[in-house]
Amino acid sequence: GIIQCVRETISNSIDEFSIGFGNQINITLKDNVFTCRDFARGLPFGKRADGTEAMEAIFTTPHTGGKFNDKMYGNAVIGQNGIGMKGVALSAEYFVAKSYRDGKCAHLRIENGETKSFEITDTKEKNGTYIEFKPSQEVYRLEPIQMDYEAVAAMCEDWSYLNKGLKFVLSNGEKETVYFSKNGIVDFIKAKVKATLQAEPYLYYVEDENGNKVEIAFQWGCKREKSYTFTNGLHNLNGGTSFTGAKTAITRTINGLAGQNYTGDFVRDSLCYVINAKVPHASFSDQT
Question: Which of 3, 40, 86, 87 has its CA 20 to 30 A from that of 134?
């Protein structure tokens, strides 16, 4: 659950990058406190029509956020239930959000599910959003909290391949690691397969149709078939329609070229492939 809170927070900054705002995310993980700073547009703040504060609503009121707006995000994002960051804020011992926009800083603090303070001050900080939280041991009471640095590092590495040009700077106070990819999922494949079977170092294709975009990179050279499927940045551990489509197409194409009727398992033996799909209005099984 705590790792999911981390994922929710970072993915919001990634969504900003996906529509052209900010190219670096700074993340720290120390003493069970997590922080995330991006350099995108910053969160909206100010009074809404009903008199409530917009930034407070983002973290406390369900179904509030810009991801329901097709013109704003194109809907190629992970979550649109409007719930994710509320769960982060309300399950924390303390939660801090700062939004830097055009010389102003809006600062919200929530403790154990209750808003403690909100203020707007002048700032010289670059535009962007800063999130800090410490998970509540009372909420996550089944075992002692231990935020897993390596799990977060693995997520950042994957995300750097899926979002070429976006830099992740991860620190735990003792060491700092930078994840950055120029070639996206091609670099992912190179990292996973060291000894290729085919003459070409890798095969890569990209297709974009009516806002549905898919990248696929693959090569033979693993000990056994390995696949990595992502939709809007979310790792689909159990596959999905893009995964099924890729498997079918690879098998059918190889059989067509060879004039044979090999089984899918035979064709894909030792194959490693990465599928990165960006799909408007994506539907995920059991998402809620």
Answer: 40
